[in-house]
Recover the amino acids of this structure.
């Protein structure tokens, strides 16, 4: 659309170079044609009446025609031009040597940059940093020396020195400084040094609010730092971005992180009303997420409102039953186990569920045990106890045995559960000599 502002497609778009000014080919052709016409007019004029010219200078006498005089003037002009060029060349010798020396220094600095890069790849960061900054002022691409030096400092964990070097780049190469700042921020993020990374990215975002790469990098850093409030303010901007690196999976992960973090934060702050308002603002495509629903239920439990937690999980189970949602629901002791068992049977019969047999057997056995039907609970758990039982099943079986006054079996099951919790890989056999 005409007049619409062009969206940037990369990081910190450079300013377009202005085209060199110069005459068009038509203008040059017109000047040449005019010169030819004037020459033809002069030739016709002198051929009709060439005339004579007498020149007397320092005892010398020369008599010639007007055309000869013009030829003499032309030859004199060419000769004087050659003499002037020779004289200028002689005077330009010092400048030539200065330029030659500068080229040699530039070539040496570029070679130094290659050596610094090689040392950086080898992991000798101290040497790489020294080589990169030893002759950077004479280099043909001086900013690249700062890149290698900054990379070497960050690899050694010298963040303040790297930031000081970035300030020097801002002074000497202001247009390149933002590129280097983004590179430093990404490297600091990769090193989990999040505070300076976020500070750099926030400053870049203020200067380039429409740059997709900076916005996405800032969102990633805020997600790693678990700064959910700032990331929440960035979500609307992220949803409007058209950046290849920002896929739907990335956006969903960031959104889930924001809402889970804010839910946990409000639960710790004991704010039930803001929690309800926050859940009302959650997008519809995220409300069915199992992890988010479990976080909401745990938040209501932390706020001493188990009824709301149970309601959240029951709605989730009615829509789509999963192992995680079912176990979270079982963690809330039901007021009426028999009624809860009926709900469980209804959820298990739905076609949209994805609960495996072991979890289903555990849930039924647990509710049967709470209802006082020890035999049914023990019967339902028996298959699970024979093939790699999990800790909740072992603990439930121990509770059933304890309720049946079988302390020996209860102790054996608890011991097995303890070993399951502390299970480690067996030590490797000694190497053969």
């Amino acid at each position: 659309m005409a007049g619409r502002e062009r969206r940037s497609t990369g990081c910190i778009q450079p300013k377009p170079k202005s085209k060199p000014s110069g005459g068009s080919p038509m203008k040059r052709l017109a000047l040449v044609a005019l010169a030819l016409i004037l020459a033809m007019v002069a030739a016709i004029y002198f051929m009709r009446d060439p005339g004579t010219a007498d020149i007397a200078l320092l005892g010398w006498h020369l008599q010639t025609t007007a055309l000869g005089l013009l030829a003499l003037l032309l030859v004199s002009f060419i000769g004087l031009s050659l003499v002037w060029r020779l004289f200028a060349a002689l005077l330009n010798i010092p400048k030539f040597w200065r330029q030659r020396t500068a080229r040699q220094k530039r070539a040496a600095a570029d070679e130094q940059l290659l050596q610094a890069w090689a040392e950086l790849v080898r992991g000798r960061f101290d040497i790489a940093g020294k080589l990169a900054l030893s002759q950077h002022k004479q280099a043909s691409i001086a900013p690249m020396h700062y890149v290698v030096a900054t990379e070497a400092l960050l690899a050694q964990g010298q963040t303040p020195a790297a930031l000081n070097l970035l300030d020097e780049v801002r002074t000497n190469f202001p247009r390149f400084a933002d590129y280097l700042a983004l590179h430093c921020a990404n490297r600091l993020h990769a090193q989990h040094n999040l505070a300076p990374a976020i500070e750099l990215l926030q400053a870049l975002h203020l200067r380039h609010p429409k740059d997709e790469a900076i916005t996405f990098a800032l969102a990633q850093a805020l997600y790693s730092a678990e700064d959910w409030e700032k990331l929440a303010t960035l979500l609307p901007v992220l949803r409007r971005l058209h950046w290849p690196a920002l896929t739907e999976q990335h956006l969903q992960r960031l959104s889930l992180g924001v809402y889970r973090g804010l839910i946990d934060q409000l639960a710790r702050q004991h704010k039930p009303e803001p929690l309800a308002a926050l859940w009302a603002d959650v997008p519809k495509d995220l409300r069915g997420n199992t992890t988010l629903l479990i976080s909401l239920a745990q938040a209501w439990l932390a706020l001493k409102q188990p009824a709301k937690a149970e309601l959240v999980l029951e709605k989730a189970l009615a829509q789509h039953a999963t192992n995680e949602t079912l176990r979270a629901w079982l963690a809330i002791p039901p007021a009426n186990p028999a009624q809860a068992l009926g709900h469980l049977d209804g959820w298990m019969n739905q076609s949209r569920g994805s609960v495996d047999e072991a979890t289903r057997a555990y849930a039924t056995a647990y509710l049967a045990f709470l209802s006082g039907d020890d035999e049914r609970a023990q019967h339902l758990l028996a298959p699970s106890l024979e093939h790699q039982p999990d800790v909740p099943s072992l603990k439930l079986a121990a509770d059933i045995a304890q309720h049946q006054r079988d302390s020996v079996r209860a102790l054996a099951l608890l011991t097995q559960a303890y070993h399951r919790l502390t299970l480690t890989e067996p030590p490797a056999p000694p190497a053969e000599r």
Notes: Residues 93-122 form the longest helix (30 residues). The two ends are 77 Å apart (CA to CA).
